[in-house]
């Protein structure tokens, strides 16, 4: 009980007393006002609004130990594009037949106001379907009946779970506004949890009360030579927490944002200790020492890195014994990239790297644990590094939570230099990670306690475009253009070419833009991954039939930034570019004889504090030719919300400058 009280204090700041508040939401309590609602007054643009979302988690001990999660949700549909809220998905997990989650008691109703009367339609159980998402994840899928603009829909269900390690999380915020979101959690004296709260919204209610309950318990007891199942009951004090948020705005996805789950208001729980009556306490991997030790003992993780006849044979075939360390690493990486095809699945565990190797296909864990094992086999200091992809969310650095990771790469050390390697894609150059992996920090799984390292690519993301063009008196433009790609932009282009084929890439490339026509496209350095990828082509734009008095030149051609990606006035979330970048454009125009420049855009030189971002624009006559230069440098990966206003204004200036035209007038 002393430990339980410590948990109370850990989650504290809450009064522990019986609260006086509204009863939990129950089905069938829809009001006339809710049915008559036409617009949500706090957000007139909302297509739908969550009127009430109620969840509760509690423990049962009649079939081992289970967590019982119940949820009831009421939603008002306000506009046609809010009808997708009538499609309900309930995910659940099944490890095997004995360890699983079970969705029960799914009930739903749709309410409409027709001719002044409330018409209620019940969800038919035959309309509930089950889908398998992958080996372990399933979902119940249903569509609420008779849902239309003006409807109020209600859904409730129960999930019984054998997995107490991660108590059910609760998302207070949604992609539509939420008027009331409430979660109640009953903590029993046997378990200790740590909770994580994310998001930027405050609690409307945060308190707790002590409940005295008697719970039925089933346990096994030896009677003679037999094990007999016994039933009993136990009285205990339950601490019930109540968390409420209200009037939450819709969470809208914004550009340069990682997973929205990083920023939506939600609560997660992690089990740290188990202690049943008259038993010794059992601690979970609540510290990094224990986490590293358990993970490296795990058959499907550290067990895959043990030297074997399989890895020894491949190492011998690679014949790198006499090569220097860097050459060894590059050869092993190239081998795995060529040998293996990624199945698109992000995983931490591998069932069997040999099996994946033989099939030439596997998950990120299959491929990169294979890479790590082979590097070790040839004498390289290599360790697996757990990361969370950008869409999966930020990892939690304060405590070990395996669920916060979904990917593994190889961390390699040669002398004083370290390299992060990923062999899932054939076009990833040495020392570079794909865009999906660029998400803050990764955890290197090594004894005694692992360590966090920043995830950064050695190359900036670069796009350089240059053109030499001639303007005709008719307005026709002809010339050549070269584009150079490095870093992530080169990887994306190569991957597209590899997947779709060079002809499709050229066709798609040539078809872009209505005014400008690309012809005779040539691609250079396709296979030289450490070199920039280049495209060269002829560029033409049609003009009039006869010479004209005034020529209007679009100086940025088809590369103008026409829209500011940062539209909202204020932003609460970081701006995550993932990697520093450079966009450089240099266009040289030969002016037709007999014409002169009448209007030329003024130059611009903007720089944010500490030169974190910079925009330079210049249009001038150089050696009798018109030269236009635009350069945008993003010099750090992540900008804080406090830097948003300046960054947004820089892009405003860039868009405005790119929209300006140059006017040439025929001399009189």
TrEMBL record:
Residue ranges constituting the DUF3857 domain according to the UniProt record: 67-189
The UniProt record lists the keyword Nucleotide-binding: no
Signal sequence range: 1-17
Keyword set, alphabetical order: Signal
Residue stretches making up the Transglutaminase-like domain: 313-414
Protein name, as recorded: DUF3857 domain-containing protein
Species this chain originates from: Rufibacter roseus
């Amino acid at each position: 009980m002393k430990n339980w009280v410590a948990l109370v204090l850990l989650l504290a700041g809450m009064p522990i007393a019986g609260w006086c508040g509204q009863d939990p939401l129950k089905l069938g309590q829809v009001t006339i006002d809710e049915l008559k609602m036409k617009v949500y007054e706090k957000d007139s643009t909302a297509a739908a609004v969550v009127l009430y979302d109620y969840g509760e988690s509690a423990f049962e001990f009649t079939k081992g130990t289970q967590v019982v999660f119940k949820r009831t949700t009421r939603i008002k549909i306000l506009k046609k594009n809010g009808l997708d809220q009538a499609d309900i998905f309930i995910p659940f997990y099944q490890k095997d037949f004995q360890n699983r989650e079970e969705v029960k008691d799914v009930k739903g109703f749709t309410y409409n106001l027709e001719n002044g009367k409330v018409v209620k339609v019940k969800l038919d159980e035959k309309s509930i379907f089950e889908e398998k998402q992958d080996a372990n994840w399933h979902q119940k899928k249903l569509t609420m009946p008779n849902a239309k603009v003006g409807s109020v829909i209600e859904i409730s269900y129960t999930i019984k779970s054998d997995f107490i390690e991660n108590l059910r999380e609760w998302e207070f915020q949604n992609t539509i506004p939420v008027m009331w979101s409430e979660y109640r959690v009953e903590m029993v004296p046997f378990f200790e949890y740590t909770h994580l709260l994310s998001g930027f919204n405050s609690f409307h209610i945060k308190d707790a009360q002590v409940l005295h309950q008697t719970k039925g318990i089933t346990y096994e007891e030896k009677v003679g030579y037999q094990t007999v199942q016994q039933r009993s009951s136990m009285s205990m004090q339950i601490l019930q927490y109540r968390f409420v948020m209200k009037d939450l705005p819709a969470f809208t996805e914004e550009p340069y944002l990682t997973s929205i789950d990083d920023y939506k208001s939600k609560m997660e729980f992690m089990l740290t200790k188990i202690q049943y009556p008259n038993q010794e306490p059992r601690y979970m991997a609540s510290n990094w020492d224990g986490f590293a030790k358990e993970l490296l003992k795990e058959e499907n993780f550290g067990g895959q890195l043990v030297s074997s006849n399989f890895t020894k044979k491949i190492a011998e075939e690679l014949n790198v014994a006499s090569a220097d360390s860097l050459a060894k690493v590059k050869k092993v990486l190239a081998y795995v990239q060529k040998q293996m095809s990624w199945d698109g699945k992000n995983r931490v565990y591998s069932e069997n790297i040999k099996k994946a190797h033989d099939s030439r296909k596997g998950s990120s864990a299959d491929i990169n644990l294979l890479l790590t094992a082979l590097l070790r086999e040839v004498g390289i200091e290599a360790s697996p590094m757990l990361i969370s992809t950008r869409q999966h969310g930020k990892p939690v650095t304060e405590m070990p939570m395996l669920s916060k990771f979904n990917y593994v790469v190889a961390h390699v050390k040669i002398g004083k230099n370290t390299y992060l390697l990923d062999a899932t894609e054939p076009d990833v150059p040495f020392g570079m990670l794909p865009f999906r992996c660029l998400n803050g920090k990764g955890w290197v799984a090594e004894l005694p306690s692992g360590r966090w390292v920043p995830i950064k690519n050695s190359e900036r993301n670069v796009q350089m475009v240059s053109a030499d063009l001639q303007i005709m008196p008719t307005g026709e433009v002809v010339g050549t253009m070269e584009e150079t790609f490095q870093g992530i932009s080169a990887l994306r282009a190569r991957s597209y070419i590899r997947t779709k084929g060079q002809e499709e890439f050229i066709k798609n490339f040539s078809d872009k833009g209505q005014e400008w026509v690309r012809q005779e496209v040539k691609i250079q350095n396709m296979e030289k991954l450490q070199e920039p990828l280049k495209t060269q082509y002829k560029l033409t734009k049609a003009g009039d039939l006869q010479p004209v008095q005034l020529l209007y030149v679009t100086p940025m051609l088809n590369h103008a930034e026409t829209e500011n990606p940062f539209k909202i006035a204020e932003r609460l979330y970081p701006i995550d570019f993932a990697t520093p970048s450079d966009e450089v454009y240099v266009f040289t125009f030969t002016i037709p004889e007999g014409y002169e420049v009448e209007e030329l855009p003024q130059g611009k030189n903007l720089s944010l504090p500490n030169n974190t971002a910079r925009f330079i624009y210049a249009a001038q006559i150089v050696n009798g030719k018109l030269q236009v230069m635009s350069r945008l440098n993003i010099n750090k990966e992540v900008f804080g919300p406090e830097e948003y206003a300046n960054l947004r204004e820089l892009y405003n200036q860039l868009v405005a400058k790119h929209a300006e035209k140059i006017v040439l007038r025929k001399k009189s």
